[in-house]
Amino acid sequence: MFNIFVMLLIAAVSYLIGCVNASIIVTKLFDAGNDIREVGSGNAGFTNVLRTKGKKLAIYTFLIDFAKGVAAVYFAHVMMTFCLGFDADSFAFCFGEYLACFSCILGHVYPCFFGFKGGKAILTTWAATLLIDWRIFLVLISVFAVILVFTKIVSLASVCAAVAFPISVGIIYLVSDVDSDLFATALVFSFLISALVIYKHRKNIQRLLSGTEGKITVHK
């Protein structure tokens, strides 16, 4: 059985990493202290920065939000490998990396440093899955890219990628014939993450249904 203290440490550190919201920090530092949550869609994320603040600040946001997803799961890997000696194919290792992923996303969505009002965690989710299983990462970005190319609606592409998360986990792990406990753990966490991301897009979904959701320009 895995060490509860180490898992709690992974969850806490990953959550705090997730709380470092790049869009809020970058706009406050480089845009005269303005808060990205008070302009555009009000979302503290990459797309809102791109639409309202331009490409330069959007790139900074992208890099930081992506890096923190990688950092959270990497921290979990280090703790489980060097502190506990878990094998990468074990149930405990899988639980730890998905716990780090979920905690980091939770921190991004509800950051304690910024009044628990954060972003929608698309980039952070992608980054975390890159370290967990590159096949899942490729599925998510492929789904996002295809939907975005055909619709030019970022929110629709994001929701579709979120829906694809547990589906891809189920198919990939089923084909890989992994341990049943590992399979169940990955599936449960992927459903929770998908549900959280979709919930954060609820206003976008309402606008999509009413036909009022904005599109991103080809140039951007």
Overall description:
- It contains ten helices and no strands.
- The mean pLDDT is 89.
- α4 runs antiparallel to α5 and α4 (55-83) runs parallel beside α6 (122-132).
- It is an all-alpha fold and 220 residues long.
How would you briefly describe this protein structure?
This protein is an all-alpha fold and 220 residues long.
Overall geometry comes to globular
Q: What portion of residues belong to β-strands?
A: under 5%
Beta-strand segment tally: 0
Low-confidence stretches are none
Give the helix/strand class: mainly alpha
Which features characterize this protein?
mainly alpha; 10 helices
Helix-strand layout with pairing:
Blueprint lengths: L3 H15 L3 H9 L15 H8 L1 H29 L7 H19 L12 H11 L1 H18 L2 H22 L4 H21 L1 H9 L10
